[in-house]
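Hey, quick one: can you model this chain's 3D structure?
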Amino acid sequence: MNRRLKFFLLIGLIILLTLLIFRQSAIIYHNLHQVELPHNRSRQSSYLQTQKWMTVSEIAQKYNVSEKDVFEALQINPEQGDEKLSLRALRNKYNKSPSEMQSNLRQLLKITDPAGNDHE
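Sure thing. Here's the predicted structure for all 120 residues.
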Protein backbone atom coordinates (compact mmCIF):
# COMPACT_ATOMS: atom_id res chain seq x y z
CA MET A 1 0.00 0.00 0.00
CA ASN A 2 1.20 3.42 -0.76
CA ARG A 3 1.45 6.17 1.83
CA ARG A 4 -1.51 8.10 0.51
CA LEU A 5 -3.91 5.14 0.93
CA LYS A 6 -2.63 4.49 4.47
CA PHE A 7 -3.15 8.16 5.28
CA PHE A 8 -6.78 8.12 4.06
CA LEU A 9 -7.49 4.89 5.97
CA LEU A 10 -6.07 6.46 9.12
CA ILE A 11 -8.16 9.61 8.66
CA GLY A 12 -11.29 7.49 8.04
CA LEU A 13 -10.61 5.45 11.18
CA ILE A 14 -10.13 8.62 13.24
CA ILE A 15 -13.41 10.07 11.95
CA LEU A 16 -15.27 6.81 12.65
CA LEU A 17 -13.92 6.57 16.20
CA THR A 18 -14.72 10.22 16.86
CA LEU A 19 -18.32 9.70 15.75
CA LEU A 20 -18.65 6.64 17.97
CA ILE A 21 -17.27 8.59 20.94
CA PHE A 22 -19.78 11.42 20.35
CA ARG A 23 -22.63 8.92 20.04
CA GLN A 24 -21.74 7.14 23.28
CA SER A 25 -21.29 10.48 25.05
CA ALA A 26 -24.77 11.56 23.97
CA ILE A 27 -26.25 8.29 25.24
CA ILE A 28 -24.50 8.66 28.60
CA TYR A 29 -25.59 12.30 28.85
CA HIS A 30 -29.21 11.36 28.12
CA ASN A 31 -29.18 8.52 30.67
CA LEU A 32 -27.64 10.69 33.38
CA HIS A 33 -30.43 13.23 33.00
CA GLN A 34 -33.03 10.52 33.56
CA VAL A 35 -31.67 9.76 37.03
CA GLU A 36 -33.86 11.34 39.66
CA LEU A 37 -31.91 12.60 42.63
CA PRO A 38 -33.69 12.35 46.00
CA HIS A 39 -35.33 15.48 47.33
CA ASN A 40 -37.07 16.26 50.62
CA ARG A 41 -40.46 14.97 49.55
CA SER A 42 -39.11 11.63 48.38
CA ARG A 43 -36.96 11.20 51.50
CA GLN A 44 -39.98 11.33 53.80
CA SER A 45 -41.13 7.89 52.71
CA SER A 46 -37.67 6.34 52.95
CA TYR A 47 -38.83 2.83 53.83
CA LEU A 48 -40.72 2.30 50.59
CA GLN A 49 -37.89 2.47 48.10
CA THR A 50 -39.45 1.17 44.91
CA GLN A 51 -37.76 2.74 41.95
CA LYS A 52 -38.82 2.84 38.30
CA TRP A 53 -35.97 0.53 37.33
CA MET A 54 -36.94 -2.24 39.79
CA THR A 55 -38.54 -5.40 38.45
CA VAL A 56 -41.54 -7.18 39.93
CA SER A 57 -39.35 -10.07 41.05
CA GLU A 58 -36.99 -7.65 42.86
CA ILE A 59 -39.93 -5.99 44.65
CA ALA A 60 -41.38 -9.37 45.61
CA GLN A 61 -38.05 -10.51 46.98
CA LYS A 62 -37.36 -7.26 48.85
CA TYR A 63 -40.73 -7.12 50.61
CA ASN A 64 -41.23 -10.90 50.92
CA VAL A 65 -44.44 -11.10 48.89
CA SER A 66 -45.24 -13.21 45.86
CA GLU A 67 -44.93 -11.91 42.31
CA LYS A 68 -48.58 -12.78 41.76
CA ASP A 69 -49.59 -10.46 44.62
CA VAL A 70 -47.51 -7.64 43.17
CA PHE A 71 -49.12 -8.05 39.75
CA GLU A 72 -52.58 -8.12 41.35
CA ALA A 73 -51.80 -4.95 43.29
CA LEU A 74 -50.64 -3.26 40.08
CA GLN A 75 -53.83 -4.49 38.38
CA ILE A 76 -51.85 -6.17 35.62
CA ASN A 77 -52.62 -9.49 33.98
CA PRO A 78 -49.01 -10.60 33.37
CA GLU A 79 -47.68 -12.23 30.26
CA GLN A 80 -44.65 -14.49 30.04
CA GLY A 81 -41.52 -12.48 30.93
CA ASP A 82 -43.31 -9.51 32.53
CA GLU A 83 -41.69 -10.30 35.88
CA LYS A 84 -38.35 -9.29 34.35
CA LEU A 85 -39.61 -5.91 33.09
CA SER A 86 -38.98 -2.75 35.10
CA LEU A 87 -41.87 -0.80 36.60
CA ARG A 88 -41.29 1.87 33.95
CA ALA A 89 -41.56 -0.70 31.16
CA LEU A 90 -44.71 -2.19 32.71
CA ARG A 91 -46.20 1.30 33.06
CA ASN A 92 -45.59 1.97 29.37
CA LYS A 93 -46.74 -1.48 28.24
CA TYR A 94 -50.02 -1.44 30.18
CA ASN A 95 -50.66 2.36 30.10
CA LYS A 96 -50.68 2.84 33.88
CA SER A 97 -50.00 6.11 35.68
CA PRO A 98 -46.99 6.24 38.04
CA SER A 99 -49.04 7.57 40.94
CA GLU A 100 -51.62 4.80 40.52
CA MET A 101 -48.90 2.14 40.53
CA GLN A 102 -47.18 3.67 43.58
CA SER A 103 -50.41 3.92 45.58
CA ASN A 104 -51.33 0.32 44.69
CA LEU A 105 -47.92 -0.87 45.86
CA ARG A 106 -48.31 1.09 49.09
CA GLN A 107 -51.68 -0.55 49.72
CA LEU A 108 -50.23 -3.99 49.08
CA LEU A 109 -47.22 -3.54 51.29
CA LYS A 110 -48.96 -1.40 53.97
CA ILE A 111 -45.64 0.22 54.60
CA THR A 112 -44.57 1.74 57.87
CA ASP A 113 -40.95 2.10 58.77
CA PRO A 114 -39.34 -0.38 61.21
CA ALA A 115 -39.59 2.15 64.06
CA GLY A 116 -43.34 2.27 63.58
CA ASN A 117 -43.55 5.84 62.29
CA ASP A 118 -45.96 6.35 59.44
CA HIS A 119 -44.46 8.91 57.05
CA GLU A 120 -47.54 9.52 55.00
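One thing worth noting: The helical segments are 3-33, 40-44, 56-63, 67-73, 87-94, 98-109.
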